[in-house]
Amino acid sequence: MKYQKPDGTNSDYERGLHDALMSLRTTEQAAAELGIGPARVRRAAALYGIGWQASPRCWLFTPDDIRNLRNRPPAGRPRRPAG
User: Where are the domains of the chain?
Assistant: First the structure.
């Protein structure tokens, strides 16, 4: 049974929980926000140990996880030094 204050509003806990759940991003949403493909997001999440794996193809990320994914090394082979 949900706790309801006398004025008819939900508890602060429920509002906070709702806000926290609404801030989560799926793999596709994170990929669109970062400008990379979903497969690369999944690889980075597994490599860096961030996010929650909800199913084999769907991960959930917090805003902090998205910030950590943004600070990733560039894709591909490193360039050779000029010389």
Answer: 21-70
The pLDDT tens digits for 1-38 are 555 555 655 677 777 777 767 778 999 999 999 999 99
**pTM of the shown model:** 0.66
d(CA 23, CA 71): 20
Report which of 44, 35, 38 is spatially closest to residue 68, judged by C-alpha positions.
44
Cβ neighbours, 10 Å, residue 43: 13
In whole angstroms, give the CA distance from residue 47 to residue 29.
Answer: 19
With beta carbons less than 8 A apart as the criterion, state whether 15 and 26 touch. Answer: no
CB atoms within 10 A of CB 60: 18
What are 61's strand-pairing partners?
A: 25
C-beta of residue 58 within 8 angstroms of C-beta of residue 27:
yes
